[in-house]
């Protein structure tokens, strides 16, 4: 788990981003969820922002908005309860006790890895000194390491190639179908991400591959409208890339043997 922190002055802009809306109210993120609120009555972005702004108004703090994103590794799959616990521990360890600070936490699903956005009002509800911002980078590194050890996020189960993970009941049929389709494509010796995507599309499977320098870094699929993560179909992006490169090497070796 890693954290990145920014400090700002506009609660409305910050909370709207967390809630997946632009300042004019248009949805921009889509798949997200409000996970946690402390010392805030409102549930909507505007209400949350106004409550935080009002609390900070009586302080001399010019930049009361604390925004941290917590991100897990792509292969990690924390539950919402674990994300909430991580958020609470993060705030406490940073000096923003949830009993004394206004806090809002959103989960975003716009990237391959799990991540949440934490918004803290640096001005505490008891009127004491604003949350300190010095040495944020070093504190983020230390605190994330502590939380990772405490909650066991570092102990990620090794994903055995081809092995199916537990998924929701409505994903099981899609999971098995995609798993078999990938196995079949690899047996047909496809050698590139484009080749694999083409073969899966023949099976009416929608693929989303994120490539870096031509290699698969993240993968996800959808079959009959059911989305499913790459790691949940038995093949991580790293495993897929290794198999594609292996098929390429085998084909190259055979071509050399017959003089091509």
From TrEMBL:
It comes from the Bacteria. It comes from Dyadobacter chenhuakuii. Residues 31-152 form the MobA/VirD2-like nuclease domain. The lineage of its organism: Bacteria, Pseudomonadati, Bacteroidota, Cytophagia, Cytophagales. This is Relaxase/mobilization nuclease domain-containing protein. InterPro entries: Endonuclease_MobA/VirD2 (IPR005094).
């Amino acid at each position: 788990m890693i954290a990145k922190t920014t400090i700002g002055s506009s609660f409305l802009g910050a909370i709207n981003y967390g809630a997946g809306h632009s300042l004019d109210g248009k949805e921009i993120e889509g798949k997200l969820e409000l996970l946690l609120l402390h010392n805030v009555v409102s549930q909507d972005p505007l209400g949350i922002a106004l409550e935080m702004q009002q609390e900070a108004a009586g302080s001399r703090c010019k930049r009361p908005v604390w925004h941290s994103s917590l991100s897990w590794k792509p292969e990690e799959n924390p539950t919402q309860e674990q994300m909430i616990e991580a958020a609470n521990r993060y705030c406490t360890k940073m000096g923003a006790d949830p009993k004394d600070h206004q806090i809002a936490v959103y989960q975003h699903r716009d990237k391959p890895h799990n991540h949440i956005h934490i918004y803290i009002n640096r001005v505490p509800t008891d009127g004491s000194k604003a949350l300190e911002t010095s040495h944020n980078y070093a504190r983020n590194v230390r605190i994330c390491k502590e939380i990772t050890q405490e909650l066991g996020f570092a102990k990620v189960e090794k994903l055995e190639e081809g092995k199916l993970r537990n998924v929701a009941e409505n994903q099981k049929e899609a999971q098995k179908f995609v798993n078999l389709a990938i196995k079949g494509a690899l047996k047909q010796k496809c050698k590139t991400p484009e080749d694999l995507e083409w073969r899966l599309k023949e099976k009416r499977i929608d693929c989303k591959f994120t490539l870096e320098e031509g290699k698969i870094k993240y993968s996800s699929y959808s079959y009959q409208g059911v989305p499913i993560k790459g790691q949940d179909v038995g093949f991580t992006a790293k495993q897929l890339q290794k198999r594609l490169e292996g098929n390429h090497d085998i084909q190259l070796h055979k071509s050399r043997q017959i003089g091509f």
